[in-house]
Specification:
The protein has 187 residues and is of the alpha/beta class. It is built from eight helices and seven strands; from the N terminus they run E-H-E-H-E-E-E-H-E-H-E-H-H-H-H. Pfam families: Response_reg.
């Protein structure tokens, strides 16, 4: 945690270096521009390997890291950043949020865990929030049906989109799962 006197009036510390790690190039570009407009000095990486190399070369004060990257897990990036710089403030972004990975992210040193789609304002608020502040509850939380659908999609992806294996792991009939997968996501 950084000292209170190093925080400027914008909420960013004296060292405004920010590493953004995401394999979605358009999202990464938009987020980089938005964070530069908010006063950060932004560097980007599109893989775990590239991000870890940048973290070891010079760990940033702030980081926004996608959980799932093409070549591995974003938690490895958070661990590498915290190894090089204990006071770094890292936020994990994911479209596959669950309690186990959130707990792991926090244990590895992440200060927040946001689900996609997260906008630049949410990310900025998470990065600059002081230790005592709590995040506001979401205005439009996911419905129970949407949470169920997200869980099924996450398991389906973990099973490499194998319907039979996913149905077995979820303890449901294969045809039932196929019908669920064929429908649109609930709101």
């Amino acid at each position: 945690m950084m000292a209170e006197e190093t925080i400027t009036d914008t909420g960013i510390g004296q060292d405004a270096s920010l590493l953004l790690v995401d394999d979605d190039k358009p999202f990464l570009t938009r987020l980089a521009r938005a964070m530069e407009a908010r006063g950060f000095s932004v560097d980007t990486a599109e893989s775990v390997e590239e991000a870890v190399a940048k973290a070891k070369a010079g760990a940033p004060a702030y980081a926004v890291v996608d959980m799932r990257l093409g070549d591995g897990n974003g938690l490895d990036v958070v661990a590498a950043i915290r190894e090089s710089r204990a006071d770094a403030r890292a936020v994990i972004l994911t479209g596959y949020g669950n309690i186990a990975t959130a707990v792991t992210a926090v244990k590895l040193g992440a200060i927040d865990y946001l689900s996609k789609p997260a906008d630049a304002d949410d990310i900025y608020a998470a990065l600059t929030r002081s230790g005592g502040e709590r995040a506001a509850p979401p205005e439009n939380p996911m419905s129970a049906d949407r949470v169920r659908w997200e869980h099924i999609q996450r398991v389906y992806e973990m099973c490499d989109r194998n319907v039979s294996e996913t149905a077995r792991r979820l303890n449901m009939h294969r045809r039932t799962l196929q019908r669920i997968l064929a429908k649109r996501a609930p709101r």
